[in-house]
Amino acid sequence: MSVLEIISDLVGTLDSIIWGPVMLVLLVGTGIYLTVILRGIQFRRLILSIKNLLESAFKKEDLQGDIPSFQALTTALSATVGTGNIAGVATAIVMGGPGALFWMWVTSIVGMATKFSEVVLGVKYREKNPDGEYSGGPMYYIQKGFKERYNIDAKILAVLFSVFGVIASFGIGSMAQANSVILAIISNVGKGGSISVPVFGEIFIASAILGGVLVILTALVIFGGIKRIGEVTSYLVPFMSIMYILAALVIILIHFDRILYAFGSVIGYAFSPTAFTGGVAGFAVSRAIRFGIARGVFSNEAGLGSAPIAHAAAKTPHPVRQGTLAIVEVFIDTIILCSMTGFVILESNLDIWGGNLTSSALTSAAFAQTLGIFGTIVIVLCSILFGYSTILGWSYYGEKCFEYLFGVKRKYLYKLVFLFTVFFGSITYVDIVWNISDMFNGLMAIPNLIALVALGGIVVDEVRKYFK
């Protein structure tokens, strides 16, 4: 066994431990804790959250911040709405059964309280940089919140979060997304194929050309700062989300006679290990819970600490108002988009558990079964747009983490390295790179969850003040 293989196995083992049952319990447990102390704010204020979303989309507010609150939301959504909505749901259903979708819903419901709290703290403790931009997120509310609440210097936790955030941005936020974008094009256009290692030939040349185009499109946006990212995502995110929802809704309505079967499968298999039709062995309830929660967290990112970085740039009158938009963010990502994917798959006549389809290939086949070539085009286009939007969102997350560590003047160095990783991810894909970035993505949650539990009382105080 080579040194690289040994390292790869070690990283894979560490990744499985970090994203194991303990982490999932911590993420969901923190959401439950915040739901309790905030008295179910995601239920009580959901209508208000939707109202604030609609107001922010059409009303311009001249307040402190860098971008309108709606653009801050779409920037956060650009990083959240991604491959998890297309591939992640399919993987959860194949690996954990239909009941996994139910546990994705549970994760999102408690995740609304988590993300609400993250954003409230992110906006409350943001600060203005020497270049005039606002910066916020876990690194700021960890350092300032612990000092204010407990008179404790917790900067080491803030530094750790920022280090984890920078590394994760190069992997999950850049290389993995670039690879998914290029692969979506190459595997569906022309001869097809897959990208594994850079080799000279038609696939490599095509990947390099497409990767170069992707780098240029990314550079044109990220060098314009958060204002340009906000402007682009304010059009891109609604367009790609509505396109996906409409296509999925058409399929669901066409097969409406199977909607009760699909919904019954989700509820039934969430609590019962009954065997599937055709004699295929049923999944244990534990598998439905495990894969449902894991894919749900991967999709909506509640608890990871990424979203408050974007929301901290918002022009908003109060942290709690911006926090209400974060509730809608999770609702859109998981309750709407992930559910759409799940019901399209479950209403299809595909051999979901006996066949060889999984991930985005299963979702693509389910769309194509009803809509034909149009369904394939929707999935390919959404895969490209979802991946590109995630690159934009994560470039900002990584930049702010880098800025916290090394100062404002060096943030352009980060952008150059980020663009290189976009190109590298376009022409190659190595499992160890994915596992390392996935591992650091999970590590981001640890200091953030500590802060959320410790500073939950501050969130409660802010909510009381706001609604008075």
UniProtKB/TrEMBL annotation:
**Source organism superkingdom:** Archaea
A single GO molecular-function term is: amino acid:sodium symporter activity
Q: List the Pfam families hit by this protein, alphabetically.
A: Na_Ala_symp
Report the source organism. Answer: Candidatus Methanofastidiosum methylothiophilum
> Where are its TM segments located?
18-41, 156-187, 199-223, 235-254, 260-285, 325-346, 366-391, 412-434, 440-460
Q: How does it sit in the membrane?
A: Multi-pass membrane protein
User: Keyword Transmembrane, does the record have it?
Assistant: yes
Listed under GO cellular component are: plasma membrane
Family recorded in the similarity comment: Belongs to the alanine or glycine:cation symporter (AGCS) (TC 2.A.25) family.
Specify the protein name: Sodium:alanine symporter family protein
Cell compartment(s), UniProt = Cell membrane
| Coiled-coil stretches noted in the UniProt entry, renumbered to this chain | none
Q: Which PANTHER family match?
A: AGSS FAMILY TRANSPORTER, SODIUM-ALANINE, TRANSCRIPTIONAL REGULATOR, LRP FAMILY
Chief subcellular location: membrane
* NCBIfam families xref list: agcS
InterPro entries (UniProt xref): Na/Ala_symport
Asked if the Swiss-Prot or TrEMBL record annotates the protein with the keyword rRNA-binding, the reply is no
> Which keywords describe this protein according to UniProt?
Cell membrane, Membrane, Symport, Transmembrane, Transmembrane helix, Transport
